[in-house]
Design goal:
Helix content: 10-25%
Radius of gyration: 21 Å
Distance between the termini: 32 Å
Oligomer: single chain
Shape: globular
Number of domains: 1
Largest sheet: 10 strands, mixed
Strand content: 35-45%
Number of helices: 9
Order of helices and strands: HHHEEEHHHEEEEEEEEEEEEEEEEEHHH
């Protein structure tokens, strides 16, 4: 019996709308537009038993404030002004309760629906006018297992939350992460997600953000590990004057597929958005970038820009880019651009002519390419860690 058959058997008696969506649609296939370039067949065919940890591990969080072990949260510390709520307490908070009862309806959201139906969320409330930083770690310990970390976060009026997240694993597993966030008026969110799972692990994450008037979003993500790594970000801009900046990088080698898919709904006027993506592929690695700006008729004076550049370091590497604009307003400034290329031969010649060995010259050019993304990260400590992971990836040998 395959893992998907086991999952469907497990959900057979679940009458929730989210369980039904997954039972009706299963794992997304390339026939679905948002999944056209990313194939989950290896997950569908695996014969792992469906294991879930029965309780949270008692291990320490290390340097993290919150650590998910196999989908179950251990909270070690939270800053003043941040509250971890029990489900009963969260049910009395309208925003958090709406997250807990959310029903997904689209075929491309079946994995989010699966996580929602199978998980116990961690509810986080950031009080008004509080500035808080949280460090979170997702760690898969069980081998041949599926885990469902689930966060529900409410950032209240004029508050600020910086959330730094790192996902990794000890053995072959599938992490299917769901994060639901609400950003109130004049609040801000900085979200930094590093995916560095083992090469025999699959990672799919889904982040849904509701942003209100005058809020600010700064989102940074990097995919390095896993046989498959996909970060999906869906954002609804539900008020005027929302500032959004997103910077993402995929690093793919061997037979990896690394995917960033971003969908932004501009529903109100005068919102500014910038999406910036840099991807590097070698061996038979594949990068995927899909970005879509939807601009409603009433969302006049939207200013939205999208840029994606991909660098191929071998003949068998592949980069798929799909920027999209769906615009119903007439007073907007929206644009997108996507390029795929190889290392610049003139720059390479320049460095080698000055005595730099070819391999070192190539690495310098790749470093400069990714640095365009890393310099956008506002937190120096996080940027330093990400640079170290990138340097290790660049120095490592890989399957051709």
């Amino acid at each position: 019996m395959t893992l998907i058959d086991t999952l469907k058997s497990t959900l057979a008696d679940d009458t929730s709308a989210n369980a039904k969506l997954f039972l009706d649609n299963g794992i997304p296939t390339p026939k679905i537009e948002k999944w056209h370039y990313t194939n989950l067949n290896n997950i569908m065919r695996t014969t792992w038993p469906f294991q879930k940890a029965s309780h949270a591990s008692q291990q320490s969080c290390g340097e993290s404030d919150i650590r998910f072990f196999d989908g179950h949260a251990t909270v070690c510390s939270v800053p003043d002004g941040v509250t971890i709520l029990a489900e009963r307490e969260a049910s009395a908070h309208p925003i958090l309760q709406s997250m807990r009862t959310q029903e997904f309806s689209k075929r491309d959201e079946s994995l989010a629906a699966l996580s929602h139906s199978q998980s116990t969320p961690l509810f986080i409330l950031v009080d008004k006018k509080v500035e808080a930083t949280l460090v979170l770690e997702n760690f898969s310990m069980l081998k041949e297992s599926v885990n469902f970390p689930h966060l529900c976060i409410a950032v209240t009026e004029a508050a600020s939350l910086t959330l730094s997240s790192h996902s990794h694993s000890a053995g072959e597993a599938w992490s299917n992460i769901l994060t639901q966030i609400h950003i109130a008026n004049d609040a801000s969110l900085t979200l930094m997600n590093l995916q560095n799972e083992r090469k025999d692990t699959a990672h799919t994450s889904h982040t849904f953000i509701q942003a209100e008037e005058g809020s600010a979003l700064n989102i940074y993500g990097m995919n390095i590990g896993g046989s498959l790594g996909r970060q999906t970000i869906d954002i609804d801009l539900n008020g005027k004057n929302i500032q959004t900046n997103i910077a993402a990088a995929n690093l793919a080698d061997g037979k990896q597929t690394q995917d960033f898919t971003i969908h932004m709904n501009h529903n109100h006027p005068s919102c500014d958005t910038n999406v910036f993506s840099r991807n590097v592929c070698r061996g038979r690695g594949q990068s995927v970038f899909q970005g879509k700006f939807y601009v409603a008729q009433q969302a006049q004076q939207t200013d939205a820009e999208m840029s994606c550049k991909s660098l191929l370091l071998s003949d068998r590497a592949r980069a798929d880019s799909k920027p999209e604009l769906e615009i119903y307003a007439d007073d907007v400034k929206c644009g997108h651009g996507a390029t795929v290329g190889t290392l610049d031969s003139e720059s390479l010649f320049y460095l080698m002519a000055r005595g730099v060995p070819r391999k070192d010259a190539e690495n310098l050019l790749v470093e400069g390419f990714i640095e365009e993304m890393l310099t956008r990260i506002p937190d120096d400590a996080t940027a330093k860690i990400w640079r170290a992971h990138f340097a290790a990836w660049l120095a490592a040998t890989y399957e051709g």
